[in-house]
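Two entries, shown back to back:
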Amino acid sequence: MSSQSKLAQLKEMTTVVADTGDFDAIAQYSPEDATTNPSLLLKAAQMPAYRDLVNRVVSKTMAGRLSSNEQIATCMDGLAVSFGEKILEQIPGRVSTEVDARLSFDTAASIAKARQLIALYDQVGVGKERVLIKMASTWEGIRASEQLEKEGINCNLTLLFNFTQAVAAADAGAFLISPFVGRILDWYKASTGLTEYAPSDDPGVQSVTRIYNYYKQCGYNTVVMGASFRNTEEITELAGCDRLTISPDLLQALDSDFGRLERKLDPSHTGDTIHYDLGDESSFRYELNDDPMATEKLSHGIRSFVADQIKLETWLKDLN
């Protein structure tokens, strides 16, 4: 046993990020950073505690009912930034705000939307150094991040499921990647019929471990932030990763566990040298296509975020 909870021990070796839009949960667990996405915003916006915030954004955005696509988009951006602004009052670090997932295959539109979000943050006195722009790890999203990083707009490349995406993101100079541990495990459970994996054999854990080791071997500055966890064992197997974004229920479980936590990832112990040559766009697309798990989970993730974006837009229209 330890005198510290596993959450406290984890914070000594990894930057802990809250994966939620719930201000109270963020305040409770004192993370460094926080992440949001359309699914989390949909859930948070419908909570009675945040109805006043939502109503203020809707009233400020438009006069009368939400109608045009432009009004709705403006309202959605305003809501994302308002939640981000409030989250930043609870944390010392950064908040991740996601670009509309319907732009995942449009580099120019993703860049334009990112600039709009940063401009909105600037209007409320939040500097771009406290914001990460989230985009899907498509070829187009990675190219958008490459341009935005040159402008000093840091990016979080999300919906990342395989090694090819990770290498392309680092080569593009992305500030941070979010490999999805739990969704990888979900796919393998569904496709193999094997319902139980030892923590070290968890395919999501193994994916992030390989990416982390490769980044450290190559000297990349891109931050590795494991995401989408299904259980605390996945988290503890990645103790030492640059960052881990964790949902409130798993933060609570870690905070209640006083067992000893062993560091598993260490930049000075990365194992055998990993050799890899990414190649060009066609190579990227082929290798992603050749990975059925990554292909399916990336497309499903984009569809799910779009569906929740549309649900939130519809809900906002019906408010007034």
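entry 2 starts here
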Amino acid sequence: MDDKTVVKESTIQINIGLNAENIPIAMDWFSTDNPDKIDVAACKAMLLSLFDSDHKDTLKIDLWTNEMQVQEMDRFMFQTMRGLADTYFKATQNKDLAVDMQKFVQYFGEKTELIPKS
């Protein structure tokens, strides 16, 4: 069997509840591969990026509910950027740039007072 043979499929479902002005007020998600076996999990924000291989462009959906607090958004962005730096390193092995990205994450965390100044 080669690396291009699909041996399993998984589904990720995201449900967005909108108010009359089309502003997200409720969000939840579900995955068939969720290791915690949770049927549906609520969330307040999501960032989805998909790379279109034909057009070499990134398609994005960024949504958050009207209940998302600024401090929660700061934490969400901090954790997301930290994860992106880790993902970038795993995918490219470019340690220098990954370290530079982590330095910005550190700066962001300090400026938003999520972490103490070093």
